[in-house]
């Protein structure tokens, strides 16, 4: 699905994109750009929209697409939410999420909106790296006729490693890409190492299987495909 994010916060746009890896998320900062984008779902930061919130919602209503509003716990944002007109059921789907944003919460809100707006839509996406087939959002990896179900973090980490075969990836980059800045103060020191070990074992990333996932000491990790 094509999702437009109207926000002046690059950090929020990046977080939303990480939260919705199965979708095409594009940041938009001008109403004219939004008219050209033709999104299937619109995410609007109320503070960024300011006095143009009503105009943005009107644009999203022709034709009607689902809208997720991002609100801070401030008098102005709360007043904007309270001022929204009541919509007849089925004419427009509007939901809200409060900041600071959390990835799981954003993903859940968007999934619900899309299910209600497009009941026949199949979100399944498939990526293939050699003999490894990655299926999202089920987080299933198929290799050598064997299906393995990973957790959300393990799946995101594995895709990142396979997308960067032969490149050393720093611990900071892995944390930012998989866990994000919002988890920085909550991420235990050994979490990345534990997830690397799980991915290595579950997907059999071993020399005898044609791959080597190694530690780059003092830096991070690297996945190599052996000839």
TrEMBL record:
Residues 124-225 form the OmpR/PhoB-type domain. SMART domains: Trans_reg_C (SM00862). InterPro entries: OmpR/PhoB-type_DNA-bd, Sig_transdc_resp-reg_C-effctor, WalR-like, WH-like_DNA-bd_sf. Keywords: DNA-binding, Phosphoprotein, Two-component regulatory system. Residues 124-225 bind DNA. SUPFAM superfamilies: C-terminal effector domain of the bipartite response regulators. It comes from the Bacteria. PROSITE patterns: OMPR_PHOB. Transmembrane segments: none annotated. This is Response regulator transcription factor. The lineage of its organism: Bacteria, Pseudomonadati, Pseudomonadota, Betaproteobacteria, Burkholderiales.
């Amino acid at each position: 699905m094509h999702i437009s994010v109207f926000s002046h916060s690059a950090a929020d746009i990046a977080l939303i994109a990480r939260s919705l890896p199965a979708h095409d998320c594009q940041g938009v900062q001008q109403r004219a750009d939004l008219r050209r984008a033709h999104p299937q779902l619109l995410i609007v930061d109320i503070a960024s929209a300011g006095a143009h919130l009503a105009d943005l919602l009107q644009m999203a209503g022709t034709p009607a697409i689902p809208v997720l509003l991002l609100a801070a716990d401030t008098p102005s944002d709360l007043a904007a939410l309270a001022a929204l007109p009541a919509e007849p059921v089925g004419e427009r789907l509007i939901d809200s999420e409060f900041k600071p944003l959390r990835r799981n919460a954003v993903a859940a809100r968007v999934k619900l909106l899309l299910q209600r707006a497009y009941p026949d839509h199949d979100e399944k996406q498939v990526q293939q790296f050699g003999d490894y087939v990655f299926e999202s959002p089920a987080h299933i990896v198929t290799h050598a006729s064997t299906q393995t179900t990973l957790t959300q973090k393990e799946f995101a980490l594995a895709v990142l490693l396979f997308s960067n075969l032969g490149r050393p990836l720093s611990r900071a980059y892995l944390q930012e890409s998989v866990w994000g800045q919002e988890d920085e103060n909550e991420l235990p020191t050994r979490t990345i190492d534990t997830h690397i070990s799980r991915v290595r074992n579950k997907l059999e990333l071993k020399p005898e299987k044609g791959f080597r996932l190694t530690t780059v000491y003092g830096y991070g990790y690297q996945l190599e495909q052996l000839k």
